[in-house]
Each structure stands twice: as structure tokens, then as C-alpha cells.
Amino acid sequence: MTVTIKLEATLEERLRQRAASTGRSTSDVVRAALQSYLAQPEAEAPRSAYAMGEDLFGRHQGPADLAQGRKQRAADAWAARHARRGG
User: Fold this and answer.
1) Is the whole model's pTM more than 0.90, yes or no?
2) Domain range enclosing 19
3) Integer Cα distance of 16 and 7 in angstroms
4) CA–CA separation, 86 vs 25, rounded Å?
5) pLDDT digits (tens, 9 = 90+) for 52-68
6) For the chain, how many structural domains are there in total?
7) Of 1, 47, 52, 80, which sits most exposed with the smallest number of CB within 10 A?
């Protein structure tokens, strides 16, 4: 199979230099590089924030209305603290 690729000038020059220094054709160098690349395991796709924490969601229990009434709970805690101090 014949494949055509476009290379930046600097990459093409590096390819030609590597081929010349090893006495191989540019096709041989590209073929070897491609085989080496494809022999590596595929990199995992980045996981989303949800996927990273999915096993933790719902693990801890607490009040269902945690955000509701927070000001009142803070005021109650403040009052209880000051009541213990005798103030």
C-alpha cells in the first residue's frame, strides 16, 4: 500500500538525515517508526471529573438538605456555643 503524508520541512530534513546516516531509504525509516509506534499500547483517553469520582458518589451519607437551612444551623450553633460560655 502506498501512503502519502505531508511533513514540515524540518521534519522532512530530519527524516532524510536519519535515512542517509543509517543507509536506509526514507520509506524504511518511516515504516520502522510506524511499526514502533503501533507496537505501543494505546494511551487511555483522559477521564472526566465524573468518571474519576464515580465510585465515591453516594458513598457518604448526610442530611439530604445540607445547603438548605444552613444559616439557621449556624445561628443555632453560635447560640449554643455562647450559652455554654454563660454569655
Assistant:
1) no
2) 9-39
3) 12
4) 91
5) 888 888 777 777 777 77
6) 1
7) 1
Residue with cell 499500547: 41
Residue 79, CA distances (Å) to 43, 65, 70, 83, 87 in order = 56, 21, 14, 6, 9
Residue 61 lies in a domain: no
The answer to whether 16 and 26 are in contact (CB under 8 A) is: yes
Domain membership of residue 20 (yes or no) is yes
> Is 26 a domain residue?
yes
Residue 67 lies in a domain: no
Q: Within 10 Å of residue 75's Cβ, how many Cβ atoms?
A: 11
**16-50 pLDDT, tens digit each:** 999 999 999 999 999 999 999 999 988 888 889 99
Q: Say how far apart CA 37 and CA 35 lie, in whole Å.
A: 5
Distances (CA, A) of 72 to 29, 46, 54, 64, 87: 72, 42, 32, 16, 20
User: Which residue is associated with the grid cell 522532512?
Assistant: 12
Model pLDDT, residue 43? 83
